[in-house]
Amino acid sequence: MNKPTETLAKAQGPSPRNAWVFDLDDTLMSNVHDYAFPILNACKLVIDTLGDAAPHVSAIVALEQEIDSRRVAEINPATNQPYGYSMERFPTSLVEVYREICRRVGKSPIRSVESELLYTGLKAFDSSRYRKNVYSDTFPVLDFLEKKGDLILLLTKGDKRVQGRKLSVLDAGKRFCSVRVVESKKTPEVFTEMAKGLESYRLFSVGNDYEKDIVPALGVGYRGVWIPVETWEVIGRLDEIRARVDQSRCIELRLLRELVERYDEITGMVA
């Protein structure tokens, strides 16, 4: 989804001096609760199906998080590749939760219930939800940077089928000079590739996950803009993560719009 190389080449010169590589989920649009309603509906279905044999709802949610987290690194037998953040990981994890609970209480899983769990989980990928998820600050901030003459790029991690729907909502092909979706993780090599042709620019990585959006970028010369969100992957760990932030090269913001308010401070950070 990259624009032609000459588009970047024409932009080269004394201005703009800044290039911003934005994360997508929980940075430009909310993602933290996309899975919440399907998970809660799945809990209700499990309870309705198993009755008093079902564990407390809090235990079901905890089991779902445990299985979902574990499946990120597990091998999908259909592809012989890790599930990662694909649609094959979720909502199939909901089925695994139901099967595990059935195993623990000595009941046989019901095929129709498994099918309903899959259908329930797929509602997490409803495009109409994505439109509502775009932060109110997103377009004003992107417009501000464009008016500054800065380059705006997007680097997101996830299933390309899912991320593609979100990118359409953002009209990403027109708003960003380069868009890339990685299915596994953001590595220093990926950030280096994003920066090709931008050697004269000050590079910034903007994201909600310090460990995944910022640290790999700092290692290859970027500055960081961290806007923390307590997702399921970092629940209860934000203070621990904050203690490790390289404050000489990374600024923490509370909200995306602070990028506009503190633009001069951010762009003045040392490399």
Automatic annotation (TrEMBL):
An MF annotation (GO) of this entry: phosphatase activity
Annotated organism of origin: Candidatus Yanofskybacteria bacterium RIFCSPLOWO2_01_FULL_42_49
Calcium found in the keyword field: no
Protein name: Haloacid dehalogenase
Spans traversing the lipid bilayer: none
Lineage start: Bacteria, Candidatus Yanofskyibacteriota
Keywords for this protein: Hydrolase, Magnesium, Metal-binding
Record InterPro entries: HAD-like_hydrolase (IPR051400), HAD-like_sf (IPR036412), HAD_sf (IPR023214), PGP-like_dom2 (IPR023198)
